[in-house]
Write a structure and sequence with these properties.
By secondary structure, this protein is α+β, with helices and mostly antiparallel strands. About 55% of the residues lie in helices and about 15% in strands.
């Protein structure tokens, strides 16, 4: 008999042949992977813990600083102000709570909603004021660029609301003298703006008179050295 016919016959026999039930059951048992109920509990508990952690992260809100009446705060574009009232108003059926802040240097009252108080910051600490004094004592760092570009950078620093940047502007524009001729008009304007803002923050933190703060700042800047020598 040819080989091709033998192969065909063998295949037909295999197809017709039935396996015993025991062997079928054994094969089924081998193929099925039974999961450990203990492991299932572990995985479910671990996944539940992970879900709880994710929920905590999502619910975690950034706590906003709550200011009280008579607190001093700094508004970047206007400097130091004092909270004189916390009021409520209804706008479009929505109740809004806001601070009323009086900026004494500019004789200006600001209205800042509490949910938009990210622009505000508390006045500096004593340690930050001491750091500002050390900045004023340091050597000026003046870039060799056009005055218009430097003026824009100085103005940006003044309106940033950052006390260290404010101190840097005062230091860099200081001429160690009170003679107006030693500075251009625009330099003088920027210097006075930065100087007054820094001085007002010194007053709020140190709680001393205007004259005492000015003496402290001028001493750090070396502005009264020429007067002392001439005297």
């Amino acid at each position: 008999m040819p080989k091709s016919k033998i192969k065909k016959k063998a295949k037909s026999i295999v197809k017709k042949k039935k396996l015993p039930r025991k062997k079928v059951k054994e094969k089924i048992k081998k193929n099925i992977k039974i999961k450990d109920p203990v492991n299932l509990k572990k995985t479910s508990s671990s996944s539940a813990e992970e879900k709880v952690e994710i929920k905590k992260i999502k619910k975690q809100a950034i706590e906003k600083k709550q200011y009280n009446i008579k607190d001093f705060v700094v508004y970047p574009k206007h400097g130091v102000g004092k909270i004189v009232a916390v009021e409520k108003a209804t706008i479009g059926q929505i109740e809004i709570q806001f601070y009323k802040i009086f900026v004494e240097k500019e004789k200006l009252t600001l209205t800042v909603p509490i949910n938009q108080q990210f622009n505000l910051r508390p006045v500096s600490s004593i340690n930050q004021i001491n750091k500002c004094i050390s900045i004023l004592k340091a050597k000026p760092k003046i870039k060799r660029t056009m005055w218009s570009r430097r003026a824009a950078e100085y103005d940006q620093k003044i309106n940033s609301g950052k006390v260290y940047e404010l101190a840097e502007v005062v230091r860099d524009l200081n001429k160690n003298t009170d003679i107006i001729a030693d500075q251009s008009y625009s330099e003088r304007q920027l210097f006075e703006k930065a100087y007054e803002r820094l001085k007002s923050e010194f007053e709020a933190v140190l709680k001393v008179s205007n004259e005492e703060v000015q003496k402290k700042m001028d001493k750090a800047l070396g502005r009264n050295q020429n007067l002392e020598v001439s005297a």
